[in-house]
Design brief:
With about 70 residues, this protein is mostly beta strands. The chain has one helix and four strands. It has one helix at about 15-25, and strands at about 5, 10-15, 30-35, 40-45. The strands form two sheets. A two-stranded antiparallel sheet has the order 1-2. The chain has a two-stranded antiparallel sheet with strand order 3-4. Strand 1 and strand 2 (about 10-15) form a beta hairpin. The longest helix has 7 residues, at about 15-25. The chain starts with a strand and ends in a 25-residue tail after the last strand.
Length: about 70
């Protein structure tokens, strides 16, 4: 179980190191977040999408991603 936390005006979800490694994610990577009809939230990595400057990952708007079937 993971607790949602308040980060400024937003709410954050912390992803543990083991899950990050298993998903092939690292800080600064982009993910797709989708609310399913069942009420479940699905998070998927955005393949091939990277920030131009790793230090600017928080500020960078993602490029137009290639949509894939969920």
């Amino acid at each position: 179980m993971v607790r949602l936390t308040k980060w400024g005006n937003s709410t954050g979800l912390r992803i543990g190191a083991e899950l990050m490694i298993a998903a092939g994610l690292k800080p600064g990577d982009f993910v797709h977040v989708r609310l399913l009809d069942s009420g479940d939230i699905r998070v998927r990595p955005c393949k091939g999408l990277q920030a131009a400057n790793p230090g600017a990952a928080k500020e960078a708007a993602p490029a137009k991603p290639v949509l894939e079937q969920w």
